[in-house]
Design a protein that fits this description.
5 strands, two-stranded antiparallel ribbon, mainly alpha, 262 residues, 10 helices, 2 domains, single chain
């Protein structure tokens, strides 16, 4: 399985830092994305409890044999963490701090709101953590767009909704309750980053009416445009059919009235 086949999934709450997105420096960006990796490790490891223990142990032992300077997986808990690391493409360095992983997972899960999930390719998340081509604002807004699309092929997103999710909230009420208004980006800042990420081809977007924008990271630009055109054509045909039925009914009523009055 290549890195592009592996995914990290985390709640929007994981990107809520209670800071202006422009004020997060590179060190904090790397640290915050590292916390997301740790969170996902613990969640995936917990999810492995229902799997065959022998399968978990085999994968964990293979992981141990393939990596240096890590402890041998003696407990079931460590075996599940090694299994999760293999599934996510994570390489442990040094000793495994199980208590720290659990604390990160509990802290993010106890954050109020922000339950909408982000699903991001592993190679993209690693690049966002390690490359100088990223800032935290880029990562937060891309996470917001991916969370907004969800498991759909495409979805319509507004600047305001993207802004809300980029601050780690799932809706406007959460934003008002948990994020100070002086920390929120302007629409111009959101727009410029959306356009920049679009040029970097992290998603495609299109609009039929020039106002409402649709986003997708599963379709090509052509596929997105064709699907929107087809949907619009079907909508117009339905409206036309409804209008024709309405006119036919009106004519029938007028005819009946005429017959009664004669």
């Amino acid at each position: 399985m290549s890195a592009s086949d592996k995914y990290f999934q985390f709640p929007l709450a994981a990107i809520r830092l209670n800071k202006n997105l422009n004020d997060v420096d590179d060190d904090q960006r790397r640290c915050s994305i590292g916390r997301i990796v740790d969170y996902c490790l613990q969640v995936v490891a917990d999810g492995a409890m229902s799997r065959d223990p022998d399968e978990i142990e085999e994968v964990a032992n293979d992981y141990y044999d393939a990596h240096e300077n890590i402890e041998k997986p003696k407990s079931r808990e460590v075996q599940r963490l090694f299994w999760a690391a293999e599934m996510l493409g994570v390489v442990f360095t040094g000793s495994l701090n199980r208590q720290a992983l659990r604390l990160i997972q509990e802290t993010i899960d106890s954050t109020p709101g922000g339950r909408r999930m982000v699903r991001m390719r592993a190679d993209l998340l690693w690049d966002a953590r390690d490359s100088q081509n990223w800032c935290w604002r880029d990562f937060a807004i891309l996470s917001a767009i991916y969370a907004g699309i969800g498991d759909r092929q495409r979805h319509r997103l507004s600047f305001d909704f993207i802004n809300t999710m980029a601050h780690g909230c799932s809706n406007g009420d959460e934003l008002d309750a948990h994020v100070s208004s002086d920390l929120i980006l302007t629409r111009r800042q959101i727009r410029s980053t959306i356009e920049s990420l679009d040029r970097r081809k992290f998603y495609v977007r299109a609009s039929v009416d020039g106002r409402r924008m649709w986003y997708s990271h599963r379709m090509s630009q052509k596929e997105l445009m064709e699907s929107l055109v087809e949907e619009k054509v079907q909508q117009i045909e339905r409206q036309k059919g409804q209008r024709e039925m309405t006119l036919a009914m009106q004519r029938a009523v007028e005819q009946r009235i005429g017959e009664v009055s004669r």
